[in-house]
Amino acid sequence: MNTLYSFVQFKYLPLSLLLLLLSTSSSASAYIFSDGEISSRNDLFREILRDEAVARLNELGKVSDADGYLERTFMSPASLRAGNLIRGWMEDAGLRTWVDQLGNLHGRVEGMNASAEALLIGSHLDTVVDAGIFDGSLGIISALSALKVLNVNGTMGKLRRPIEVIAFSDEEGVRFHSTFLGSAALAGVLPLTALQISDKSGVTVQDALKENSLEITEENLLQLKYDPGSVWGYVEVHIEQGPVLEWLGFPLGVVKGIAGQTRLKVTVRGSQGHAGTVPMSMRQDPMVAAAELIVLLESICKNPKDFLSYDGHCNDISLESLSSSLVCTVGEISTWPSASNVIPGQVTFTVDLRAIDDMGREAVIYELSNQMYKICERRSVSCIIDRKHDANAVVCDSELSSQLKSAAYSALRKMAGDIQDKTPALMSGAGHDAMAMSHLTKVGMLFVRCRGGVSHSPAEHVLDEDVWATGLAILAFLETQL
């Protein structure tokens, strides 16, 4: 499947790409299931993989730090309550459980050979602000549902390798603006300095953990890293967060790779003053400078070829990739002192920049920084650009992808009978814990269809039957480990 799929709205697709999509799927609505169409055989495990899983998703979706919307950030009271719920479900599935010193929740079954390389399955329990109930949670709950089926069937003890489900404590990075805290620690790529990152209240990561009776030091942070020789691979199930699977009419898709991403914090400082007394010609206004910088960002990301040249920073392949995959977002902006009758003295905003091609992403950041500094100099304001987060693009393991593809096909065949279409393969524009875990072991991902491609929103929705299909697919994948 074309890497463009995950980055476009389909009403803007060129005719050639629409034709390619049509050739990929023989029926854009073929796999929307109803009870009357699904086999009643007992190998579908409706009660566990659908009914119970959906009920648990809804229950977890009510565990929030806010009234009226879902918000669950790193080490918040709601995150602890959510962890307790998930821990109970892990034990219900027959897993041994524990919480590590960075707040990650683990559930493990040793199988027939406790010393064999383990299969890790995970996703995150934290959310964004005003979140949906499926992002992160679906991957955890569907894995536990599949393991519960093995436990009920009495086959879990026949697994030839340990299986470990991990609910990561922080993936979204909402509280500390540093994503993958949980998974990066296990992969051994979380810097020691991360413990001293502070939130808006001045509380550090280390403080937040200590407040919840988790003593983390530089020494035991290093000890959290898994031995690569003890891990066979990592698998993550996640909603697509895009419209491709829905458009194709397919509940499940295999992920080929994940876009690299960079997060910047831009601070513009000028001269604070009275809104009514400082002439326009004498102002050093960081707000209008920041506005120009944000428009510049949009221009570069919409038309990278107009700004980048074929040189040591970028080649023709990178430019072509950027034209189809580059996305940039300013998601947060703040001013000081933030009063309607005061020219601000400082403006800070964030930049989230993603692309499939790492060389191209670096070229954009290089050019963006140069242009930003020039604008700030012309406007007589200062500009500081801090790189807060970097993650290189990830290519998923071909063996794991093939197994997940077969498992998805097997699940859909059980539900719908004979199917003609191939399981779609997609690129992910969203970051996932698999990006951090790729530094430890091979990774594979399965995407699940979500309505309208909407995510990071209470409108996020997955059909009950697609939750069921997801559980069946993970079950089929786990059965390859028997």
3D structure, described in words:
With 482 residues, this protein is α+β, with helices and mostly antiparallel strands. It folds into two domains: 43-258 and 394-480, Aminopeptidase, CATH 3.40.630.10; 260-391, Alpha-Beta Plaits (2-Layer Sandwich), CATH 3.30.70.360. Helices cover 35% and strands 19% of the residues. It contains 14 helices and 16 strands. Strands 1, 2, 3, 4, 5, 6, 14, 15 and 16 form a nine-stranded mixed β-sheet that branches. Strands 7, 9, 10, 12 and 13 form a five-stranded antiparallel β-sheet that branches. β3 (118-124), α4 and β4 form a beta-alpha-beta unit. GO terms for molecular function: allantoate deiminase activity; metal ion binding. It comes from Quercus lobata. Keywords: Endoplasmic reticulum, Hydrolase, Manganese, Metal-binding, Purine metabolism, Signal. InterPro entries: Amidase_Cbmase, Bact_exopeptidase_dim_dom, Peptidase_M20, Peptidase_M20_dimer.
